[in-house]
Amino acid sequence: MSSAPLLFGWEEWLALPDLALPAILAKVDTGARTSALHAAEITPFDAPDGPMVRFVLHPVPGRADLALRCTAPLIDRRDVTSSNGEREHRFVIRTRIAVADQSWPIEVTLTDRGAMTSRMLLGRQALRDHITILPTARRMQPELGYDLYAAPAGGPEPTRRSLRIAVLSREDNYTTRRLLEEGRARGHIVDLIDTTRCYMAINTLAPEVCYDGERLPRFDAVIPRIGASITPYGTAVVRQFETLGTYCVNGSEGIAASRDKLYAHQILARAGIGMPDTAFASSPKDTRNLIALVGGAPLIVKLIASSQGKGVVLAETTKAAESVISAFRGLRANFLVQHFVREAAGEDIRCLVIGGKVVAAMKRRGAEGDFRSNLHQGGSGAPVRISPAERSAAVRAARAFGLGVAGVDLLRAHDGAKVLEVNSSPGLRGIETITGKNVARLLFAEIEARVKPAADPAPGAARPAHPALP
Predict the structure, then answer these.
(1) Residue finishing a domain among 296, 322, 340
(2) 137 and 73 assigned to the same domain
(3) Do residue 73 and residue 131 come from a single domain?
């Protein structure tokens, strides 16, 4: 580091930005080799980026009610002998300290310093090349103060508190990485949880969600990214978090309903939201009547469990429609038929709704010769301005499913916007790339507005997370 060394006394204020700590008073001890940080409820775990450790920090002496939940890279486990001669096996993390206009990484051991006046101790390794010590001086650097942890009466909170947030996902893809990256950049503790590795203790007094042999900590919020192939189990896991009183961005009922195309269209119809005429029947004797209900060919035949444009067929003629319907019935597949909106010309509009607002929209066009506009099927996209009616339709559709974040697909028909689908796990790559908007940041801003950090609730305590579906 090229900057001149800072002058430190035996006690100094500093910040730990990687842990979202705006201020902590540290004791400077050149007699100690390593640094130490007060921590409780220390739990190591594996993550895609390597070993991590969770812990709870009480940064203000005498304030047990102020508990910050932190996550940091775990780099070692080390035997440390304290000043009173006691030997302790400690976890070692790497994090940055910030003082004045300088910042640098250090290694810190985690230990219980609850009986100490200083919640942090700075040892020789942390001071090397950065600090000049004046052992008789005190607080040579700018004062920070514990008032950074308290909001002024009637005013905004000056420092955003760290939230513990779980991203439920089995995939290491663009959307998952963006959520982890953006959440951590905003100072939150964001854990990636593989949905299928969760298991549940279901009881009245102390319901739990466990993971790899350990009870998961209390999360302030959960962002479900439930894959279509595991919808039943994934929604069961989300329901368990709801039982615990955790705020789930998308509720279990809304996720399940959005995956069932038939039920989804019934919800849209009940809410009075425009959509293409749709019909469903079980008996093969009803095939011609089914086709007539949607205005005849051309029409769309769609598997009820389809996603990303798979299991969706355009039948140009009545004979072709009868053949496709017969084939689907032969496979004992559940499907519906839908009016083909010819004037849409192979285009649809994806609206990204967060917290009851359309935050981004793009027009998608199918690949040459393909009526499907899904980007996964080779379609292309471009930014688009939507009308107030289209904006209203998208917001009402997301609200009908009780979804905090949703991708709503619209068609532009002669008689107004038609909702094709409501996606409860919309991808971010296409819409962020095409619109240039930081959608992940907007999602975390919504979570911050709705959730306040909370300690573990009393056994059996819960709060409703989502309104019931109509």
Answers:
(1) 340
(2) yes
(3) yes
Using one digit for the tens of pLDDT, what is the confidence trace for 187-203? 788 999 999 999 988 87
Q: What's the chain look like in SS3? A: CCCCCEEECCEEEEEEHHHCEEEEEEEECCCCCCEEEECEEEEEEEECCEEEEEEEECCCCCCCCCCEEEEEEEEEEEEEECCCCCEEEEEEEEEEEEECCEEEEEEEEEECCCCCCCCEEECHHHHCCCEEECCCCCCCCCCCCHHHHCCCCCCCCCCCCCCEEEEECCCCCHHHHHHHHHHHHCCCEEEEECHHHEEEECCCCCCEEEECCEECCCCCEEEECCCHHHHHHHHHHHHHHHHCCCEECECHHHHHHHHCHHHHHHHHHHCCCCCCCEECCCCHHHHHHHHHHCCCCCEEEEECCCCCCCCEEEECCHHHHHHHHHHHHHCCCCEEEEECCHHHCCEEEEEEEECCEEEEEEEEECCCCCCCCCHHHCCEEEECCCCHHHHHHHHHHHHHCCECEEEEEEEEECCEEEEEEEECCCCCHHHHHHHCCCHHHHHHHHHHHHCCCCCCCCCCCCCCCCCCCC
Q: What is the model's pTM?
A: 0.63
Query: What is the domain range of residue 182?
Result: 164-257
Q: For the segment 166-181, what is each residue's pLDDT rounded down to a tens digit?
A: 999 998 899 999 999 9
CATH number for the domain that contains residue 286: 3.30.1490.20
380 & 432 share domain: yes
Q: Does residue 128 sit in the same domain as residue 11? A: yes
Domain identity same for 316 and 409? no
- Please give the tally of structural domains in the chain: 4
